[in-house]
């Protein structure tokens, strides 16, 4: 998969809904129900971060949920890419980008949202062919104002800002012409997941899915 093909597929994933839930899952047994609730609420693209021992099993479970597109977040190494793809991830997300990681995703045919926080990082990825990128950490890097400034001279890049994005500020990002969607964890609060309150999570998903962009 070329970077151009990867970005085309990433753009399709970003177009599915205004919000991609960023999920840190401790109990894989709850993964399928969580995915079903989010998909039912209108958020089909799901990012499971590889930050817990349960993450890969969670991806396996979510990959079987009809209507969902499950990706692996926090990809750092080629081994992460291999394991994520084997678990059923259909796209990847990384906090930054290295040549080894980009090459691994290209070789594995895994569409990637590579992370960038500065104009130089965004330009380096664009030079390689990545026109769809993750802006991370969004709030710590200056928020919507910073992303607006970056987008003005580099309009060819579409971003998915993640990191500190919430229901309160999501609209600030989604109103920008260079933002395709946002990534956020607020749609799956840890306490609601732990208690299995899927109705509450579906309601949060519906609220997020209704955000204008």
CATH homologous superfamily heading: Aldolase class I
pLDDT < 50 runs, ≥5 residues = none
End-to-end distance, in Å? 29 Å
Q: If strands are numbered along the chain, what order do they take across the biggest sheet?
A: 5-4-3-2-1-9
Query: How many structural domains can be distinguished in the coordinates?
Result: 1
CATH fold field value: TIM Barrel
**How many strand units?**
9
Rounded Rg: 16 Å
The percent range for helix content is 40-55%
What is the residue-averaged pLDDT?
97
> Briefly, what CATH class?
Alpha Beta
The SS-based structural class is alpha/beta
Describe this structure in words.
- Strands 5-4-3-2-1-9 form a 6-stranded parallel beta sheet, sandwiched between helices. A 3-stranded parallel beta sheet has the order 6-7-8.
- Helix 2 packs across helix 3 (55-62) and helix 2 runs parallel beside helix 10 (198-209).
- It is of the alpha/beta class and 213 residues long.
- It has a single domain, classed as TIM Barrel (Alpha-Beta Barrel).
- It is built from 10 helices and 9 strands.
- The two termini are 29 Å apart.
- The model has no long low-confidence stretch (mean pLDDT 97).
- The longest helix is centred in the N-terminal third of the chain and has 12 residues, at 3-14.
